[in-house]
């Protein structure tokens, strides 16, 4: 692994991420800037009556728990990717990585408390065996500036997704948890966008190259992360919701339109357009048609 040979790297407080004995992610020595802690979420207060029979929420939330719980596979790659940019690397390692790992722990803990009969660890192990193969340094953009634009896409997706998930249930503990995680994702987006602007100012990149990266990363999110996670949730659901769908394709056909109907599409489009640095009048004209296009892509 690449290491930074700078004083700031060596002096920064090191938080260690590791797999626990059962394969879940754990974090220690969290940075003082972290805004909330899983330990402060009272999972015993979950109102089970509001979620137990919510099949859509089950699939969407467990899928999110898988992806977030595997975040240590790609966070380390990204930290190493920016070894030559100390301010970015330090923020990635000492802030972003820890918050992503906490998201995974939080979602996993909620799912296991809400649907204890679901074999979360077994299903996650199955998911990570497939998903982990995608989390390689080769999947990152060679151009560091363009990879930051790609990260804006990912953070836009998670921000919008967690806002959408809040519309599927008014369960109070879940509402609190999703609110915390969405706020983290908004902060991550702002950091990635700011770093993108800094690198682009030093070495400009053409808008068409930025647009190509944004489009490609959007498609990858739709075709890999979500679909892989959903397949593994389906494969291990056991007797949960046995009469609601005969195939995982049936679940997907029902879920994706539900999500797209509730997606804050115009907000997502505004976030996606920021790396393009378009004139404000052009951004305003593009928001509505691009929001409609985003919904069609999600439904496909």
From TrEMBL:
Q: Which domain of life is it from?
A: Bacteria
Do you know which Gene3D superfamilies this protein is assigned to?
A: Ribonucleotide Reductase, subunit A
Membrane-crossing ranges are: none
Q: Which InterPro entries match?
A: Ferritin-like_SF, RNR-like
Positions of region (Disordered): 1-29
Which residue ranges have biased composition labelled Low complexity? 1-27
UniProt-recorded name of the protein: Ferritin-like domain-containing protein
Organism per entry: Ottowia flava
């Amino acid at each position: 692994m690449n290491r930074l040979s700078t004083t700031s790297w060596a002096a920064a407080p090191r938080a260690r991420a590791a797999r626990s004995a059962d394969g879940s992610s754990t974090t220690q020595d969290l940075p003082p800037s972290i805004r909330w802690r899983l330990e402060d979420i009272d999972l015993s207060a979950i109102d089970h009556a509001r979620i137990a029979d919510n099949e859509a929420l089950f699939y969407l939330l467990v899928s999110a728990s898988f992806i977030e719980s595997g975040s240590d596979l790609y966070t380390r790659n990204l930290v190493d990717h920016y070894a030559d940019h100390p301010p970015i690397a330090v923020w990635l390692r000492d802030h972003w990585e820890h918050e992503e790992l906490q998201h995974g722990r939080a979602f996993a803990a909620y799912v296991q408390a809400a649907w204890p009969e679901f074999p979360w660890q077994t299903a996650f192990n199955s998911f990570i065996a497939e998903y982990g193969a995608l989390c390689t340094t080769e999947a990152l953009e060679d151009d560091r500036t363009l990879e930051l634009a790609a990260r804006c896409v990912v953070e836009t997706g998670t921000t919008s997704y967690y806002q959408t998930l809040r519309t599927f249930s008014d369960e109070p503990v879940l509402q609190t948890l999703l609110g915390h995680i969405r706020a983290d994702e908004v902060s991550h987006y702002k950091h990635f966008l700011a770093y993108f602007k800094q690198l682009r100012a030093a070495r400009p990149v053409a808008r068409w190259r930025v647009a190509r990266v944004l489009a490609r990363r959007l498609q990858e999110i739709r075709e890999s992360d979500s679909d892989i996670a959903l397949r593994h949730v389906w494969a291990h659901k056991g007797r949960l919701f046995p009469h609601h769908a005969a195939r995982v394709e049936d679940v997907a056909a029902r879920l994706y339109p539900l999500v797209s109907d509730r997606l804050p599409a115009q907000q997502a489009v505004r976030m996606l357009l920021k790396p393009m640095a378009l004139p404000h009048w052009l951004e305003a004209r593009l928001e509505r048609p691009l929001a409609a296009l985003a919904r069609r892509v999600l439904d496909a």
